[in-house]
Amino acid sequence: MSAMRAMAMILWVGTMAWGQPATAPADVVAGFLAQCAARSEAAEKAGNLTVLGRDGWMFFAPELRHLSVGTFWGPDAARVSRASRPQNADPLPVIVDFAAQLKAAGIELLFVPVPAKAAVYPDMLSDKVRGPLPRVDTAHAAFYEALRNQGVQVLDIQPALAAARADAGSPPVYCRQDTHWSPYACQLVARLIAERIGSRPWLKDLPRLRLQAQEAEMQITGDLWRNLKADAPPKETLKLRTVAMQGGGTPEPVKPDATSPIILLGDSHTLVFSIGEELHGTGAGLADQLALELGVAVDLIGVRGSGATPSRVSLYQRSKSNADYLKTKKLVIWCLSVREFTESTNGWQKLPIAPKVNQP
Question: Where are the alpha helices (DSSP H) in 57-120?
Answer without folding.
Answer: 61-68, 77-80, 91-104, 117-120
